[in-house]
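User: Modeling request: complex.
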Amino acid sequence: MSVTESPTTVAISPRAAANTRTRVIGLLMAVIGLITTFIFGMGSVGSAKSSLTFTPVNLQSAPWHLGALTLSTRLCDVIIGLLMIALGVEVVVRHPAKGVMARFGLVAVLFFLALLVWAARSPGPSQVPFINLTSILIGSSTLAMVLIFGSLSGVMCERAGVVNIAIEGQFIGGAFLGSMIVSTTHSFIYAALAGAVMGGLLGLILAFLALRYLSDQIIVGVVLVTMLGSLSSYLNLQVLTPYPQYNTGHTAPNLAIPLLSKIPILGPVFFNQTGFFYVMLVLVVVISFGLFKTRWGLRVRAVGEHPEAASSVGINVIRTRYTSVIMGGAIAGIGGVAFMAAQGQFQPGYTSGLGYIALAALIFGRWRPSGAVVASVLFGISVYLADNLQTYQIPVPTEVLGMFPYLITIAVVSGLIGRVRPPAADGQPYQRD
Amino acid sequence: MPRAFTQFANAWVRLTSKSPIVVTFFAIVLGLLIGALIIITTTPAVLVSWRGLFHSWGGLGHALKVTFDNVGSAYRDMFSGSVVNPPEFWHALTTGKNWNQALTPISETLTYATPLIIASIGVGLAFQTGIFNIGANGQAILGGIAGASVATLIHLPMILHLPLTMLAGIAGGMIAGSIPGLLKAFTGAHEVIVTLMLNYVVALFLIFSLLSTALQRPNQSNDISRNFDPSAQLAPLFGTASGLRVSWGIFIALAVVVFAWWFLDRSSLGFDFRVTGANPNAARASGINAKAVIVMVFLLSGGLAGLAGVVQASSTTHLIDGGFLIGNAGIGFTAITVALLGRNRPMGILWASLLFAALGVGGRAMQASTGIPLDLATVIQSAIVLFVATPVLVKEIFRLHTAQTGAVQLATKGWSS
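Assistant: Request completed. Predicted assembly structure:
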């Protein structure tokens, strides 16, 4: 038995502890606001102007044209900073029971915006005197989409009580097979199906070793990632290099939704995307609804929280876990294909740890589909900015920005900000009596 | 049934029931078989030869010959590139010349094994305490950065400089290790998540520090450090002229093995560690301070990983760059698999490190001579560890009904434990 929690430890007023944590988040938000106000806002020259543009480049179906918006850098960043301070103070004073993390996410997004406004100020060090907000959102949305696939996969597996640390491996497997299939069949539908099969197969291996042989799920996951990384690198050299026709590197075409895609800013981000993006949107809705509103979802969650109890009311724990893990693996496999469809040609190692960021998003999102989506968007933006801010010559090293997803996840799991609780039986072996 | 056969079968059962090493052995066999299968299914020449079977049955012999030739030459090159090349060795033995050439393969294996042994001992110590230190790679990188700072910025005579460089590496690893240790002890944060995330933080910090004015090589715009001072380098064991790269670091590795053995089997702190790993509740009941143990095991494990990082840089490249321990070169990740293969025991880890080092070095030789990519070695390594982590599966495949599994200790029980 794995009952370790004695009732006495729970008695230390959890309400007070929650309030303290909420206050810490509020303070942190206010501090970020102060930094924004004084360093980005007051720190820039009073006459500096920042220019925002909204018309994306390289899009066949461009939205209705929106002129450039030129703002005073100082004024803009001071306003954003004060807004963040206000949000922080509100959290400290009122410590609301719900929506604290959502406010924190809003502050993070505002911080990114303030950073961009400040980075593009002119006169300033930047060679590009404007920022194209729509392009940045489009770029981030691709990363966020892949992260959402990955973290939804994690939600599926871990809600059923199996730790899926192998998301990265499923990405690699999906991207590899997807690239081969799309090169030979020229169909992204077949590629997505192949990626789903590949991811599902990896999920099956994880489930088989974890559920039948009770292997440590974290070890199996880590080893599967290593194996897929080296296997794909091996096959790339041994098969794809001599036969380049199997890795021609197509990128998926954008499917613009008429009219809606013409809306400025939002249109290109939400309605002028590849098919994978729309599949992702559908999956988010289906999984959120399925897990929390259907009998099937209740069973999955029961298996992940208390398998013995679930078993005693007649739920087949092992079978439920198998199906959830295989489905989760398939979702991550499609995510790998989606990544390949955005990047083109498969290259070994090009997912560069995105699967682990997806894992971080899952944890930051508190093992809930909606939370995972918010976290993935946040992390997608930060990863995109870290990769693309060099052009603005900002004095903040972009590596620090790249650390954001990891540091915030560490802060969350250690309860420094917020509080997360995994499904109670997550990662625990289950043995039938 | 013939008597001889029965006797053999009995001896077989007795042999296989004795030791968990049997399962490890069969895991290695299975890993190599999987490697062979991968070579067969991905080498065009082999596939073409099997196509001959559709024309005539006579093609079978040819196909088998081609298959064995290809698989055989791959594994033969792996062996002769990492252990010893028999003709060269025989030549050296009979003529007394070219010893350096004959010893190069084993020297390369030992060079690669040196930091691996140190890092794997660190991971194994943590496993024995029930802690999954997946962040050995990050700790090794931070150790390398700290060591490189001392080795390139301070100038001292060797007798001070080399120990100081090593100590800096240990300190760097301890700093990286203390974060998950303190967080786990005082907030209950799961060490796997924290160390996993820290690996990426440290990898980004590596780039950041190598681009900083302090560490970056002068007149360079990319991420590379200055060369280590000669007084901070681990010199080759047989002198630079020999061309053999195996360094004095191998003695550091052996000292770490002996230390780990003493620590786990003879010291009272090591006993506390093992009790905590075997049964946390019993440990708490007998008055062991669980928080102190968690922090200390992370300091020790991180310190060893940091030492591994600095030994790696100081004995081979004499500098660190943006690719230091990144990707396939990440000894911290290999160390996890080595510790599992060695069942977290110091001697087991020593042998496992040598095996994995030989696979890695041999893989490079195989790539050079047969063109089969060296990543195959990593695939074989991961397959071996998957089987070692699943002893019951190995027993079922080989029908080792009575063999003890000596079960690899399950260090973690998921996020919520």
